[in-house]
């Protein structure tokens, strides 16, 4: 591919927050490989806020699949919108045929992506998916596709960005709940959007939060989306020292700034886990039904706690048996992992 002829690039994002965070090294590779090009990200309404402020993205178009872009008529409408921007290249990080169809309908002359979901004929620069590719960590999976066409970066770290105003707003929020700027903040993230099989138990999160709060002198904040509000309430009710419950009370941008402010994070395999990894927050992640080899936090400041069982990873939304992959993970397992990690990465007693 003649890179000098590429001036406008459309990147189709993945549809889940965690997956989208794991594409940020790929976005950096695109930016570095096409330094003079304008990079536009097409993303759904859940993922788009991650990139409204990002050094690898110039602008974001929201793909409104349930509204303006619903159905075949909506796809045609979106394709017409994209056609007016005269993109030279579409890079499809999402694997679905939908992404390739829209790029084809938009008459984008070069369309790059994996040959998944039967969409190979719609791609001009397609890459087959073999068993080796399927076993790659998601960060490497996206980079491998781009690397076939010379789009690469040496910096493979995750990257997200917040604004000074967003960071200041979080400090104001914490102070309004009696916290000081230097307080050690422990984030507890009990949710996992994909399904209950990924979730450790509220009473165990509560016990971990109580114990680490006692050992570290930490203040505790419980994060999550609207669907985790009830779980967060259960954790708060079970704790000896009441935490600040923010589950269901933040936008994606506010959640990013809140996680960034945390000094340590205890979490399930989830989108917020990957956000914490992107901001370099030390974290302990409990894994059960999901595959830690492909979706583990991409960070050297992270520890995974899991137990080998005969049925994990099953990748199911709901456990059909006794959830042994999660019941086997104890409170002591997570507390000890957190203590070891905190010592290794030299997390201070109080933030600067």
UniProtKB/TrEMBL annotation:
<keyword id="KW-0808">Transferase</keyword>
<keyword id="KW-0328">Glycosyltransferase</keyword>
<comment type="similarity">
    <text>Belongs to the glycosyltransferase 9 family.</text>
</comment>
<dbReference type="GO" id="GO:0005829">
    <property type="term" value="C:cytosol"/>
</dbReference>
<protein>
    <recommendedName>
        <fullName>lipopolysaccharide heptosyltransferase II</fullName>
        <ecNumber>2.4.99.24</ecNumber>
    </recommendedName>
</protein>
<dbReference type="InterPro" id="IPR011910">
    <property type="entry name" value="RfaF"/>
</dbReference>
<dbReference type="GO" id="GO:0009244">
    <property type="term" value="P:lipopolysaccharide core region biosynthetic process"/>
</dbReference>
<dbReference type="InterPro" id="IPR002201">
    <property type="entry name" value="Glyco_trans_9"/>
</dbReference>
<dbReference type="InterPro" id="IPR051199">
    <property type="entry name" value="LPS_LOS_Heptosyltrfase"/>
</dbReference>
<dbReference type="GO" id="GO:0008713">
    <property type="term" value="F:ADP-heptose-lipopolysaccharide heptosyltransferase activity"/>
</dbReference>
<dbReference type="Pfam" id="PF01075">
    <property type="entry name" value="Glyco_transf_9"/>
</dbReference>
């Amino acid at each position: 591919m003649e890179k000098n002829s590429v001036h406008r690039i459309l990147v189709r994002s993945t549809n889940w927050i965690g997956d989208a965070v794991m594409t940020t090294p790929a976005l950096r590779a695109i930016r570095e490989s096409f330094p003079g090009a304008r990079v536009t990200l097409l993303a759904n309404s859940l993922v788009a806020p991650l990139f409204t402020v990002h050094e690898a993205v110039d602008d974001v178009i929201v793909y409104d699949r349930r509204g303006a872009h619903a159905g075949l008529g909506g796809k045609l409408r979106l394709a017409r919108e994209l056609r007016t921007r005269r993109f030279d290249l579409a890079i499809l990080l999402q694997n679905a045929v939908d992404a390739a169809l829209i790029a084809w309908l938009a008459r984008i002359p070069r369309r790059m992506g994996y040959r998944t979901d039967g969409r190979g004929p719609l791609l001009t620069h397609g890459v087959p998916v073999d068993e080796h590719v399927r076993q790659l960590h998601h960060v490497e999976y996206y980079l491998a596709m781009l690397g076939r066409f010379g789009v690469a970066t040496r910096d493979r770290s995750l990257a997200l960005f917040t604004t000074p105003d967003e960071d200041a707003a979080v400090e104001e929020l914490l102070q309004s709940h009696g916290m000081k700027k230097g307080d050690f903040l422990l984030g507890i993230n009990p949710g996992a959007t994909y399904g209950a099989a990924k979730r450790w138990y509220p009473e165990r999160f509560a016990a971990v939060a109580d114990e680490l709060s006692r050992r570290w002198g930490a203040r505790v904040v419980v994060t999550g989306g609207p669907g985790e509000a009830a779980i967060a309430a259960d954790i708060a009710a079970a704790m000896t020292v009441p935490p600040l419950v923010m589950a269901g009370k933040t936008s994606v941008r506010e959640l990013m700034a809140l996680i960034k402010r945390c000094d340590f994070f205890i979490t399930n395999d989830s989108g917020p886990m990957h956000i914490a990894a992107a901001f370099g927050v030390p974290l302990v992640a409990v894994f059960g039904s999901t595959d830690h080899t492909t979706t583990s936090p991409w960070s050297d400041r992270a520890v995974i706690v899991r137990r080998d069982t005969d049925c994990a990873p099953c990748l199911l939304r709901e456990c059909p048996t006794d959830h042994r992959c999660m019941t086997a993970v104890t409170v002591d397992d997570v507390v000890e992992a957190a203590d070891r990690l905190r010592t290794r990465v030299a997390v201070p007693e109080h933030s600067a």
